[in-house]
Predict the structure of S-methyl-5-thioribose kinase.
Amino acid sequence: MRDFTTTYFTMVEADALDYVKTRLSFFPDDAELTCKEIGDGNLNYVFRIIDTKTGKSLIVKQAGPVARISDEFKLSPDRNRIESEILSLQHKLAPGFVPMMFHYDPIMNCCAMEDLSDHEIMRTALLQYKKFPLFADHITTFLVNTLLLTSDVVMDHKEKKELVKQFINPELCEITEDLVFTEPFIDHPRNDVFEATKEFIQENIWGDPELALETAKLKLEFMTNAQSLLHGDLHTGSIFIKEDSTKIIDPEFAFYGPIGYDVGNVIANLIFAYVHARATIDDEAKKVDYMSYLEDTIVDTIDLYKDKFMVAWDEKALDPVASYPGFKEYYIGKVLDNTAAVTGLELCRRIIGIAHVKDITSIQDQDKRAAAEKICLSVGKMLILEREWVKTGEDYVKVIREFEQL
Ligand code: SR1
Ligand code: MG
């Protein structure tokens, strides 16, 4: 058995099993443990350990020194500390919406947490046309609690600055700065463009200086506006879901940034599911039904978010300036502008950049995939350029419908 107490190394299944047996007291001594590596994300190793006698299970997640998607990304495994610490904090701010954290190990850069195998990854579920009527309510409570409650308008300013320090996350922020804000909007060698969409991208995205200028402004906002403690990568692959429960996972990109970044990622990924349904459901009535469900979810997510934010502001924003007439409306207006723009950025970067989404890549019909990509790019571009008037759920539906027939 390898030594887990002195030198970091990346574990394989047998190591993770030994690790749990020797470093944790989670399972009884007579447990019959099995281990499987189940990670399908771009960065980490995720081991599920099950006691076959009792069915009791646990997840061990380890950060490797390079990203799984490409060893070009060398990343500090300290991101595992960030993930463990923010999950513990989010558990207090938004109880019931994150997995329980049991253990963090700064030598092996791994943590142990609740196994959510009774839930499923939301992206996978949406690609099977499943519906989750409570999602908008759940995600908006999570967003308002984790974002508004970590902002300057609510927190003691010195404590907030301590949190900013604790969650400085330069390497993962750099990934986002490059992969979301820069590379998709230029002809960058790391981009991964579908041939049938290339000409559209050259003409409409790379060839548009007005769009380039707006992405530069948004990148600056992302890098300098330490507004709230973000999840930082809140796509539908970072959400575990079942009918009556929503759990937000994988917050390793966490840092203090603009609130709209989290909300915008949620909305963009609902739009990917919408575009996927449009391209893949043959039965017209079923297609309309599922697309309407997703439209309603987008509308409810934006509108509930805004309503809950206003209510929480009135109850919890204690900074003296928070009650100045008009300030709350100014603040939420800026958050909503940024939300629309980030929705647009995510829609573009998942089509053009290195990190794609299955919603699009799983569309088998090449013409339908190209059409789906063009819808995402067109909606994305409009949301970036015209973000200032996109303030309600219905405004998003208007933009989506404008390009839906492409
Ligand atoms: C190198 S990491 C690529 C992408 O995967 C993560 O989930 C983030 O979305 C990142 O941009
Ligand atoms: Mg992730």
User: Anything to note?
Assistant: The beta strands are 33-37, 45-51, 57-62, 101-105, 110-114, 120-121, 228-230, 239-242, 245-248, 255-257. Residues 41, 233, 238, 250 surround magnesium ion (ligand 2) (CB under 6 Å). The two ends are 58 Å apart (CA to CA).
